[in-house]
Specification:
The complex is a heterodimer. Chain A is an alpha/beta fold. Chain A has an 8-stranded parallel β-barrel with strand order 1-2-3-4-5-6-7-8, surrounded by 6 helices. Chain B has a single domain, classed as TIM Barrel (Alpha-Beta Barrel), CATH 3.20.20.20. Classes of the chains: A alpha/beta, B alpha/beta.
């Protein structure tokens, strides 16, 4: 499964301060640590970045790729900052991943950028009119996004459909709907992705890790292609590796957790 | 409508490995496709066959095979030279059988001398094998590795019970290493992991999942080899990407089919041809399962399998 390391986010105080002071070291360290822990992409969440967003994203991309030979997942609602990131991205280790488009007309521009820069893209199966009710709802939105992508010439293989994971503590039914959606995306031949920690938002802190781990295993069983998660959480990564063994994606050996 | 051949493509690549030195050095592995399916990927190197010789008289070999080497098998030096100069061997595999405690139980120092003597008369690459005694092999192969220092040999076999010492010797003297496990793909992977965790680069490993002759469990070996190859290519499992060894001759030439007299089994036809055919067929199966390197005994069987390789590659 493809791991997208989530640690470089404006929400984290240390990262935010480093971004503000343009201090590359803490960001590079986090990027390297995630990469070494098995992340295939490093998520770069700079938030809406209303001021100097283009310069910030360019600086982030260049700083990280100086240290890490991996593609990045560019995460902002600011389209011009995102475009600057795509221009700065070194594609030597893989295409970048845009985070994200959806069925909200304000996010259509992201799909246009994916087409223009030959990038991969995450497509959230939500529209402007509220959250999807169930898996069928998500499928309807997915097919609208796919039709739009086809018009723009974005290959289906470059799209990761995201069912939008909702917190289990307030919308318990949605956990199952999202699992069903992952299965249905796979049956369409489409790739899928989730922001894993959404499932445990709002639950007592000491339970979050367990909830994330068990849900990830179920998602993988349904055919999940990629997950945005914390690769520095060893227990979580051990669940990924163990589930990959159960699913026959990895050959078992006593030391498989060390690989 | 035109027909397009369906093609599989893989993310992984078998690691390329060189052994020997100078103009006669050989390269095996490096492919990105399953055996003989060059149209699906790159197959830069053909499989190689090494002639097996021993450091003591081949008393346990069947007569039809002993007869072939009767003038040269008195000593490993004449035997090695014969294989290289007369039979055109591309590589030689020296099995240090005499060191086995149940045979002559010769010392590690004796083995080292044998290795030196053989190396002094050949210029083709050498594979150095112990007698498959876990304890004894550890000391014998350490001495042999030192004696062969600088010759870029393949030494083995490192097994679960003795790999630490043998890995250290291969590291110290810059040899390639055979990692052997007994017909178990998970143990094969585990041993490769343990060896690389000692700092031995996986690109210097050869995997031996253990062979078996036709009629004596060949399908088990076939299945394990095939799954190793698929794990390396399709799952891009780096621990399963070293080239594979098929040490097949030793298993073939003790079967009933290669030893039973014509008078005992009149329906089985010529004993001489039967043995050659049994080795050639078993070896060819190992190639189709994924072997990059074979160790064989009968020149006619080697010739037949080389012909197959040249026709299919």
């Amino acid at each position: 499964m493809i791991i997208i390391g989530e640690k470089i986010s404006i929400i984290a105080k240390k990262v935010r301060e480093a971004m503000n002071s343009r201090d590359p070291l803490p960001i590079q360290e986090l990027a390297e640590a995630q990469w070494k822990a098995g992340a295939h992409f490093i998520d770069v969440n700079i938030g809406p970045a209303e001021e100097r967003g283009e310069e910030l994203m360019t600086w982030m991309v260049q700083s990280i790729q100086k240290k890490v030979k991996a593609p990045l997942c560019l995460d902002t609602t600011n389209a011009s900052a995102l475009e600057a990131g795509l221009k700065a991205h070194n594609n030597e280790w893989g295409k970048p991943l845009i985070n994200s488009t959806s069925n909200d007309p304000e996010r259509f521009v992201m799909l246009e950028l994916a087409s223009k820069y030959n990038s991969q893209i995450i497509a959230l199966t939500v529209g402007k009119g509220g959250l999807p009710a169930d898996a069928d709802d998500r499928m309807v939105i997915a097919s609208e996004i796919m039709a739009r992508a086809e018009e723009l010439g974005v290959p289906m293989d470059d799209i990761y459909l995201d069912p939008l994971i909702l917190q289990v503590c307030t919308t318990q039914n949605q956990a199952k709907h999202s699992l069903n959606a992952i299965k249905m995306f796979g049956e369409l031949g489409m790739k899928s992705v989730v922001g894993l920690s959404n499932i445990s938002n709002g639950v007592p802190k000491q339970m979050r890790s367990l909830i994330d781990r068990v849900y990830l295993s179920l998602l993988m069983y349904e055919g999940l292609s990629a997950a945005i998660l914390n690769p520095l959480d060893k227990e979580l990564m051990d669940v990924v590796k163990t589930t990959d063994v159960f699913l026959g994606n990895t050959l078992y050996a006593d030391s498989y957790l060390e690989m | 409508m035109s027909f397009a051949i369906p093609k599989e493509s893989y993310n992984g690549r078998v690691l390329a490995l060189d052994f020997g030195k100078g103009g006669k050095a050989l390269m095996i592995g490096g492919e990105t496709a399953l055996p003989f399916l060059a149209f699906e990927g790159e197959v830069p190197n053909k499989p190689v066959i090494a002639y097996e010789i021993q450091d003591s008289a081949p008393d346990d070999w069947p007569d039809t095979l002993k007869e072939i080497y009767k003038d040269v098998s008195g000593g490993p030096v004449t035997w090695a030279k014969h294989c290289q100069d007369k039979l055109g061997a591309k590589a030689i595999a020296l099995r240090l059988m005499s060191t086995h405690p149940d045979r002559e139980n010769r010392s590690a120092a004796d083995a080292a001398k044998t290795v030196k003597d053989v190396l002094s008369v050949i210029n083709v690459p050498l594979i150095i094998l112990g007698s498959n005694n876990i304890e004894k092999d550890a000391s014998v192969l350490v001495a042999a590795a030192e004696a062969a220092s600088g010759h870029n040999c393949i030494i083995g076999k490192a097994q679960e019970g003795n790999y630490k010492t043998i890995v250290a010797a291969a590291l110290a003297h810059n040899h390639k290493l055979i990692a052997m496990s007994e017909l178990d793909i998970n143990l094969a992977k585990q041993l490769n992991i343990l060896i690389t965790q000692m700092g031995f680069d996986k690109s210097r490993l050869v995997t031996d999942p253990m062979c078996s002759a036709l009629g004596y469990g060949l399908e088990y070996t076939y299945s394990v080899m095939e799954r190793i190859r698929l794990a390396g290519l399709a799952q891009n499992d780096a621990t399963m990407q070293p080239p594979i060894l098929g040490d097949i001759g030793i298993y073939v030439w003790k079967t009933k089919e290669t030893t039973a007299e014509e008078s005992d089994v009149p329906g089985w036809g010529s004993l001489k041809e039967r043995g050659i055919a049994w080795e050639a067929v078993s070896a060819t199966a190992m190639l189709t399962a994924g072997s990059n390197l074979l160790i064989m005994r009968h020149p006619d069987a080697v010739e037949a399998v080389e012909k197959t390789i040249n026709e299919l590659c």
